[in-house]
Amino acid sequence: MTHDPAGDAIKALITRNNTKILLIVMDGVGGMRTGQFPQTELESARTPNLDKWARRASLGRAIPAARGVTVGSGPGHLSLFGYNPLLPEHEIGRGVLEAAGIDYRLPPNGVAARGNFATLDKDGNITDRRAGRIPTPEAKPVLEKMQKAVAEPIEGVTVKVMPVKEYRFALVFEGEGIGADLYDTDPQKTGVPSLDPKAKIDTPENAKMVRVATQAIKQMRAAIADEPKANGFNLRGFAKDPGLETFESRFGLRSAAIATYPLYRGVASLCGMDVVKTGDTIASEFETLKQIWNDYDFFFLHIKKTDAMGEDGNRDGKIRIIEEADKAMIALDELKPDVLIITGDHSTPPPMKSHSFHPVPFLLASELCDIDAGTRFTETECDKGTFGTFPSWEIMQLALAHAGRLMKFGS
Fold first, then answer.
1. What is this structure's pTM?
2. Beta-carbon-side half-sphere exposure of residue 211 (alpha carbons within 13 Å)
3. CA-to-CA distance for 212 and 220, rounded, in angstroms?
4. Is pLDDT of 2 > 80?
5. Number of C-alpha atoms within 13 angstroms, CB side, residue 258?
6. Is the distance from CB of 83 to CB of 271 less than 8 angstroms?
């Protein structure tokens, strides 16, 4: 097993104090300039609060994994939390994150996959990979049909269909002798059918998992074939729980997570953070932050819809969400975090309608930061910043340093 060479050295330097560290993640916040739109969404938005903090901060650009590599939300957030996502021991499949996000911890003999409802045409080809983003109440009866279709174990393996949110669900397999090294069934495009389960590595455990998954998919698809929107589904991220070192053990911080979507609650939970109940709006998340401010050292607050708007190609919508988040950040004037970090887990430019490899804008404000030339929280201004372009998994050690929580290294 490979290990992060800096991990133990940083841990040995940690000292505790009463400082508060706040990490605000605007999911998919980064954009890209085009001939049609020479300004990104951040550059086009009116963001007086973000810009106020930028003028008293050090800026830069963060790379979630490696240059040119596009990450999913799981590894993107792990990197922000100080776990190098390129290391094998930090690999978490999407299914595990979905299950953890609804407070279901996989047993050792469990394998989980994330499910996305999809709309299929009469030939079985995908016309909508998210089934029109059907709301949670519409998804519930469809999921009940699916669960009924797999009520009996398959080769001794039980199958659990668990609602997550909107068009998303978790599919959990529990039984002896099953592997998790399977490819996704999502072809990542429309106009083609879903892929069949296939093993990445030829082992008896993976072969059994392929047989079980194939049969379960067949039975569940037959049960929902008459649905008007969610008449199909795709599976991603087959995985087992890797057993991560906890965030407090790693960084000496009592931590809380505030997020409206299950996946982000899931990755925080797997890192050992306390996941706090909150409302569905950005404003309610900041209200929750105020309520728990005295109880923790580290706070992770997640804003989802910047990413959703980017994936939908909705530039105006992404600008609107950025401005809504900026308005809510007036609460920071009252809370006065000792270290404030604002960034994203990855970029989601509306022209691409997907996650991208573009470096993410990064802001760190603290009494100990080196105030630089950047005056706004935008891609252009962050390019002027002190931090330059750096890996996201270094963010936590920067946070600790700027909170006065790292002792000197060496004599």
1. 0.82
2. 14
3. 12
4. no
5. 27
6. yes
Q: What is the mean pLDDT of residues 402-407?
A: 97
Strand 298-303: give its sheet, edge to edge: 274-275, 255-258, 298-303, 21-26, 339-343, 360-366, 57-63, 388-391
Q: Taking CA 120 as the corner, what is the angle to CA 165 and CA 218, rounded to the nearest 5 degrees?
A: 80
N- to C-terminal Cα distance for the chain?
Answer: 31
What letter represents residue 145's amino acid?
K
* Domains of the chain with bracketed CATH: 18-90+245-402 (3.40.720.10), 97-239 (3.30.70)
**196-237 per-position pLDDT tens digit:** 999 999 999 999 999 999 999 999 999 999 999 999 999 999
Tokens of 189: 């495009």
Query: What token pair was written down for 154?
Result: 């398959």
**Predicted pLDDT of residue 88:** 86
Residue (of 311, 251, 319) closest to 23 by Cα position? 251
Query: How confident is the model at residue 388, as a pLDDT?
Result: 97
Mean pLDDT (the chain) is 95
**Tokens 């089934």 sit at which residue?**
131
Mean pLDDT of 363-369: 97
Rounded Cα distance between 91 and 78, Å, is: 9
CA dist., res. 64 & res. 47, Å (int) = 24
pLDDT, tens digit (0-9, with 9 covering 90-100), for 385-395: 999 999 999 99
Q: Which residues contact 54 (CB under 8 A, 6 or more apart)?
A: 363, 374, 375, 376, 377, 381
70 touches 139 (CB < 8 A): no
Mean pLDDT of 120-137: 95
d(CA 118, CA 232) in angstroms, rounded, equals 5
Is the separation of the CB atoms in 116 and 236 below 8 Å? yes
Q: DSSP label at 131?
A: G
**Type and span of the H or E element at 126:** strand 126-128
Radius of gyration of the chain (CA): 22
